[in-house]
Amino acid sequence: MAEWSIAPVLKTGNGQPFVSSNLTASANAVHNMTHIQMDLPDAVAQDARAAGLLTSQALERLLTHALARQRAADALLSIADEVAAAGVAPMSMQEITAEVKAARQELKMVQAG
């Protein structure tokens, strides 16, 4: 396993994952920052590093997008009971495709002005 932190430095070891506040006076003035350390298999860590995914910016972007997807999924699932209680019939794949095409067409018209 490779132990890594947000800093792009890989260390070989078998450390315990942790999350801790890393707040300095200057960081408090601008941003609250959290230091994250975790264990990854060496191959994953090396591939991620080679792909530029072990930088603070890349990890922030990945986590931000993952959180947005999770919130969207949670919002969708939160109305599932309401839809079922309202007796709304499930859409067929053909109906879904037609709705997507209509939404895309509407978006094109809006973008065209």
Concise summary:
The protein has 113 residues and is of the alpha+beta class. It has helices at 25-30, 42-50, 56-78, 80-86, 93-112, and strands at 2-5, 10-12, 18-21, 34-40. It is built from 5 helices and 4 strands.
Please report the number of helical segments.
Answer: 5
Proportion in helices: 55-70%
Order of helices and strands: EEEHEHHHH
Shape label: elongated
Report the β-strand fraction as a percent range.
Answer: 15-25%
Poorly predicted runs are 4-21, 23-28
Give me the secondary-structure topology:
Layout: E1 2-5, E2 10-12, E3 18-21, H1 25-30, E4 34-40, H2 42-50, H3 56-78, H4 80-86, H5 93-112
Structure write-up:
This protein has a 4-stranded antiparallel beta sheet with strand order 2-1-4-3. The termini are far apart. By secondary structure, the chain is an alpha+beta fold. It has one domain. A hairpin with a 4-residue loop joins β1 and β2. It has 5 helices and 4 strands; from the N terminus they run βββαβαααα. The longest helix has 23 residues. Helices cover 58% and strands 16% of the residues.
